[in-house]
């Protein structure tokens, strides 16, 4: 009898332990935090005089959004922002946007960051808006250096003229590169709001061939990026999370011969010292003139390919849509990119992160406010808060 009692006690204890383990595992899944990062395009500002040559009315690229019907009468694209044509370089406006973002599960902004003609460009949204907002400590941010050339695309008066005109080049010399890096380390990396992975500031570079062209070749670029990493360490950080914007052009570089290695793309990014990657837009590697869920199936396969082919950390990216017709009047158009389908794409990204528990739980979204590319989270007259609610439904259950 005593033996049976002891066995029942042992069995009960085992059940209790098993139950606690299941409960703990369930709690870990429920409590898991995700870093949901939305790219932020800083052209919707009213206090930056360098924007006036492109948008003379003084409201930044809202001008392109609001005069769409005047330029193309009867065009199907007729979007309107629920919040109005707000000045995102106003700290009160950014205070509201940070509140809405965090309330819906977005806790990181990736600022598109520009440097032209020896100085920063479109920086007021970050400096005057985000960093001066009362609730700036509620959200993290990091920089994506958008180092592409400036051509006629932004200016709707000229963007139909295909004359190859380059207004500003995104190429920089080694001296200019060092100036940029030192400034960003001091001005941004040291801020408590700057997003870091294992203590390493994250810095993303958009156009790698452009960087290589400016610095003079692959060897020179590898040396410059190594210097950047070393300079970041000298500033007191354990290292630099150097992030690649992954798109077809950035990975097809003639300096690496595919006949000599099975994975020239991987050797390319290893040589340059990139430690992680994400995408900026689906249009960079897919035909987006397609149904959203068909696109997402291809995206999922691309994530799996990258995971196998590259010796770096990939952070999954989800774009909301694509339609560039506000600028050009015509465009490839992503179809059926409803909030419900977008939520399915987010769930795929969440599943990818859950299957890679050793990496930071970072997911990137295009975007917070790319209105003229029709890929934005901000509420509009078509879906209201639908895209923001989709993020909330997936990441704040």
Short characterization:
This protein is α/β, with parallel strands linked by helices and 397 residues long. The protein is 41% helix and 13% strand. The protein has helices at residues 2-31, 62-66, 68-71, 91-103, 124-130, 174-189, 208-215, 218-234, 248-251, 264-272, 292-309, 325-328, 339-354, 386-395, and strands at 35-40, 108-116, 119-121, 140-145, 196-197, 200-205, 241-245, 276-278, 313-314, 317-319, 362-366.
Defining key terms:
13% strand, 11-stranded mixed sheet, single chain, TIM Barrel, 397 residues, alpha/beta
Describe the structure in your own words:
With 397 residues, the protein is of the alpha/beta class. 41% of the residues lie in helices and 13% in strands. The chain has 14 helices and 11 strands. It starts with a helix and ends with a helix. The relative contact order is 0.13. Mean pLDDT is 90; it is low at 14-18, 21-29 and 254-262.
The total strand number stands at 11
Instruction: Provide the CATH topology.
Output: TIM Barrel
User: What's the architecture in CATH terms?
Assistant: Alpha-Beta Barrel
Question: DSSP helix count?
Answer: 14
Write the H/E string, N to C. HEHHHEEHEHEEHHEHHEHEEHHEH
In terms of structural class, how would the helical and strand content be classed?
Answer: alpha/beta
Which residues form runs of ≥5 with pLDDT under 50?
14-18, 21-29, 254-262
For the termini, the CA-CA separation is 49 Å
The percent range for strand residues is: 5-15%
Major sheet size, sense and barrel closure: 11 strands, mixed
């Amino acid at each position: 009898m005593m033996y049976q009692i002891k066995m029942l006690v042992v069995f009960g204890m085992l059940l209790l332990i098993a139950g606690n383990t299941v409960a703990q595992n369930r709690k870990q899944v429920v409590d898991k935090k995700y870093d949901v990062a939305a790219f932020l395009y800083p052209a919707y500002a009213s206090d930056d005089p360098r924007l006036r040559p492109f948008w003379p009315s003084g409201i930044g690229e809202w001008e392109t959004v609001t005069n769409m019907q005047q330029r193309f009468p009867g065009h199907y694209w007729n979007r309107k922002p629920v919040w109005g044509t707000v000045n995102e370089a106003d700290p009160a406006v950014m205070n509201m946007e940070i509140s809405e973002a965090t309330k819906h599960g977005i806790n990181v902004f990736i600022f598109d960051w520009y440097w032209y003609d020896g100085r920063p460009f479109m920086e007021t949204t970050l400096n005057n808006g985000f960093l001066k907002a009362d609730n700036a400590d509620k959200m993290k941010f990091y920089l994506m250096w958008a180092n592409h050339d400036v051509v006629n695309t932004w200016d709707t008066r000229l963007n139909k003229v295909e004359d190859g005109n380059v207004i500003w080049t995104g190429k920089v010399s080694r001296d200019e590169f060092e100036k940029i890096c030192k400034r960003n380390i001091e001005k941004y990396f040291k801020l408590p709001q700057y997003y870091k992975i294992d203590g390493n500031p994250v810095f993303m570079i958009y156009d790698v061939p452009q960087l290589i062209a400016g610095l003079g070749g692959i060897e020179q670029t590898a040396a410059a990026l190594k210097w950047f990493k070393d300079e970041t360490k000298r500033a007191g950080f354990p290292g630099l999370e150097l992030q690649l914007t992954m798109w077809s052009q950035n990975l097809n570089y003639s300096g690496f011969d595919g006949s000599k290695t099975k994975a020239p793309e991987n050797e390319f990014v290893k040589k340059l010292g990139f430690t992680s990657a994400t995408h900026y837009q689906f249009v960079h590697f897919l035909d987006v003139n397609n149904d959203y869920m068909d696109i997402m199936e291809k995206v999922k396969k691309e994530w799996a390919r990258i995971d196998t082919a590259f010796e770096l950390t990939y952070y999954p990216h989800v774009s909301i849509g694509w339609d560039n017709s506000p600028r050009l009047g015509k465009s490839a158009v992503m179809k059926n990119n409803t909030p419900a389908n977008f939520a399915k794409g987010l769930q795929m990204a969440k599943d990818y992160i859950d299957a890679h528990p050793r990496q930071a739980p970072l997911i990137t979204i295009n975007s917070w406010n790319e209105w003229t590319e029709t890929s934005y989270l901000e509420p509009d007259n078509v879906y209201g808060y639908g895209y923001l609610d989709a993020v909330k439904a997936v990441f704040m259950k």
